């Protein structure tokens, strides 16, 4: 269960600070609460399976496989709900991202948002493709995300195989 939460957090990092033009947040905790709400709504809506999505962390999988499509859409789904991605054009809204990032009081989270703005600003890709590109970018540039992946993968290895393909 814990590893799933970690993975969810990682996928959430994609959208952590991707937020909504209409909605006003007063502080970090309101922002994160709403993000988690939206994340669970989106996971349900997209029927996202954390075990399947976790395979996107493995280099030996074919990331273009259709079964991963929904995983790539998770971040954008949350981002559209929060205003960090334009619902129609599917472009990231970096102004909104910055606005939300300013609410981060926690140094670790603030560092993450800085890193995303420094390395991962993407004006070209849209919708789910933008989500996937952003995830790859964060994984490449964030020591925190890399740590989470390492933990996730070692937990995965140490999970007793219940026989056959885990669902
Ligand atoms: C965040 O803001 C809301 C509304 O102003 C307030 O009720 C809540 O206590 C604040 N939370 C924190 C952790 O500051
Ligand atoms: C955040 O980044 C700054 C500068 O890059 C670094 O000095 C600091 O230790 C980082 N803080 C955390 C909590 O990672």
Query: Whole-Å distance between the termini?
Result: 14 Å
Radius of gyration: 15 Å
Low-confidence runs (pLDDT<50, min 5 residues)? none
Could you report the average pLDDT, rounded to the nearest whole number?
Answer: 87
Shape: globular
Would you state the CATH class? Mainly Alpha
Architecture per CATH nomenclature, i.e. the level-2 architecture:
Orthogonal Bundle
Query: What is the percent of helical residues?
Result: 55-70%
Give me the CATH superfamily: Pheromone/general odorant binding protein domain
Present as ligands are: 2-acetamido-2-deoxy-beta-D-glucopyranose
Question: Which fold name is given in CATH as the topology?
Answer: Recoverin, domain 1
Strand runs, count: 0
Tally of domains: 1
Q: How does the major sheet shape up?
A: none
**Strand fraction band?**
under 5%
Oligomer: single chain
Order of helices and strands: HHHHHHHH
Count of helical regions:
8
Which structural class fits the helix and strand makeup? mainly alpha
GO molecular function: odorant binding
Protein name: Odorant-binding protein 14
InterPro entries: PBP/GOBP, PBP_GOBP_sf
Keywords: Signal
